Amino acid sequence: MALDPPTPHEGFSDYIIFVDESGDHGLNGIDPDFPMFALSFCLIAKTSYAQQIVPAFQEFKFEMWGHDGAILHEHEIRKNKGPFGILRTNPVLREKFYERLNGLMADAPMFVIARLSTKLT
């Protein structure tokens, strides 16, 4: 007896969620110049992620580096480290990079939920 194939996402959520933190998450010695902590969630439909977001970011990476192996890590981007070192000496490319990255993020079909705390106790 053959079983019917499962329907897409059967038993799984139709959404994917990404969670990240930013700011001073230390419990000891909080930085008085940046005494805040943010916890953010991005909720994205799996179909939007697979059909729109991933291809858009792959295309962006192909345009920038000729491959899609670069990982868009905030610290490396901000400090122009690793594959982002090319942004340090080329202001035209840096402007193009940030403009394109900001556009991709603004156009991404997702819900962003964020919680900011300025009092860590």
Unreliable spans = none
**Tally of alpha and pi helices:** 3
Per DSSP E runs of 2 or more residues, the count of β-strands stands at 3
Query: How would you write the strand order of the largest sheet?
Result: 1-2-3
Q: Termini separation (Å)?
A: 61 Å
Mean pLDDT: 87
The amount of helix comes to 25-40%
**Content of β-strand:** 15-25%
**Biggest beta sheet summary:** 3 strands, antiparallel
Domain count: the total is: 1
Q: Please provide the ordered H/E string of secondary-structure elements.
A: EEHHHE
* Rg, alpha carbons: 19 Å
Overall SS class: alpha+beta
Give the overall form. flat
Helices, strands, pairings?
Blueprint: E1 15-23, E2 37-45, H1 46-65, H2 74-78, H3 91-107, E3 111-117
Antiparallel strand pairs: 1-2, 2-3
Helix pairs in contact: 1-3
Written description of the protein model:
The structure is a single chain. The protein is of the alpha+beta class and 121 residues long. The chain has one domain (15-25, 35-113). It is 35% helix and 21% strand. The protein has 3 helices and 3 strands, in the order ββαααβ. It has helices at 46-65, 74-78, 91-107; strands spanning 15-23, 37-45, 111-117. The protein has a 3-stranded antiparallel β-sheet with strand order 1-2-3. Helix 1 (46-65) packs antiparallel against helix 3. The longest helix has 20 residues, at 46-65. The termini are far apart.
